[in-house]
Amino acid sequence: MEPFRILILGCGSALPTLKHYASSQVVEVRGKLFMVDCGEGTQMQLRRAHLRFTKISAVFISHLHGDHCFGLIGMISTFGMLGRTATLHVYGPAAFEPMLNAQMDMFCKGLDYEVVFHPVDTTAHAVVYEDKSLTVETIPLQHRIPCCGYLFREKATLPHIRRDMIDFYEIPVSQINNIKNGADWTTDEGELIPNHVLTEPAEQPRSYAYCSDTRYIPTLHQCLEGVSTLYHESTYTSQYEERAQLYYHSTAAQAATVARDAHVGKLLLGHYSARYDDEEVLLQEAKAIFPHTLLTKEGMVVDV
Questions:
Q1: pTM, entire model
Q2: Tens of pLDDT, residues 190-201
Q3: How many CA atoms lie within 13 A of 67 on its CB side?
Q4: Residue of 233, 215, 229 lying closest to 270 (CA atoms)
Q5: At residue 119, what are phi and psi to the nearest 5 degrees?
Q6: pLDDT at residue 26, as a whole number
Q7: By the 8 A CB rule, do 113 and 133 touch?
Q8: Residue 117 vs residues 55, 162, 257: alpha-carbon distances, Å
Q9: Which single residue of 82, 155, 194, 298 has CA 20 to 30 Å from 5?
Q10: Residue 250 has pLDDT above 90, yes or no
Q11: Cβ within 8 Å of residue 102, ≥6 positions away
Q12: In the predicted model, is pLDDT for residue 205 greater than 80?
């Protein structure tokens, strides 16, 4: 099975601390790298992770608060200094386009590569990116400004051919693709060999949902049903539930409730308030509702 994993570059919230970087992640799917949010310090974290900057093909910005996008223009500039030639695709709220263009006019003239901006409708659940192995959908969220999450879905692959059966029935190579696509095989003696004997089922497609800053949405689980891994902001404990509601954030218990109701495989917590020296209190609150919960931290790699 090809890699599908998440690298946590930053999981803090808006107030800078010495412990956590601002929000940023890299999603690796079948050899392709995508970035989700790009807060300050993202470049330093990429260096620490020994990731090749040039392999990042697209950046998905959830909303226009600085701890989620202040690092982007610096990274675009660095890409230019490193001699990047491949197009960089940037997805984000439509209001970001004029700001990004103004920053690039000021700081990034003469790039040898193109930056293509794709405005997304943060109020719609829609596919905004697709290639032969993956789709990326928006997840409408509720924050103080337009905001959406992103859902990375692996496309289903064809069944695996059983080599022993191919050899036993002396099936020519020219017929393998037909069999992968569901065809049976008839031997020279007229015996019909059903497809399920010749193949093994493909792996179940995996999925990853990134839910950035949002207050608790009771219906959110409906568009997250059955995802393999969910990242959901958990800025506060339930002690500060009123504050979370006021500032359109979530508690760890609320994140766990979404994960439980959506029947996800595992839950990742992040976007911690700077008030917590030890996030274990967030973890214990979430695990009481959804046991398969992990705290994210910088440098952590999670297999989806």
A1: 0.92
A2: 888 888 888 888
A3: 18
A4: 233
A5: -70, 140
A6: 98
A7: no
A8: 18, 44, 34
A9: 82
A10: yes
A11: none
A12: yes
C-beta of residue 51 within 8 angstroms of C-beta of residue 33 = yes
Using alpha carbons, select from 245, 241, 256, 244 the residue that is nearest to residue 295.
Answer: 256
For residue 149, is pLDDT > 90?
yes
Residue with tokens 């760890």: 252
pLDDT at 183: 86
Angstrom CA distances, 119 to 84, 114, 168, 195, 210, stand at: 23, 16, 54, 44, 18
Closest-CA residue to 5 (of 204, 223, 206) = 206
* Residues assigned a catalytic role: 67
The candidate with the shortest Cα–Cα distance to 262, out of 201, 221, 231, is: 221
CA triplet 26, 94, 114: central angle to 5 degrees?
60
Residues 229-255 as b/e (b if ≥16 CB within 10 A, e otherwise) read bbbbbbbbbeebbeebeebbbbbbbbb
Contacts for 170 with CB less than 8 Å, ≥ 6 apart: none
Gap between the Cα atoms of 133 and 60, Å rounded: 18
Average pLDDT for 234-250 = 97
Question: Looking at residue 253, what is its pLDDT?
Answer: 98
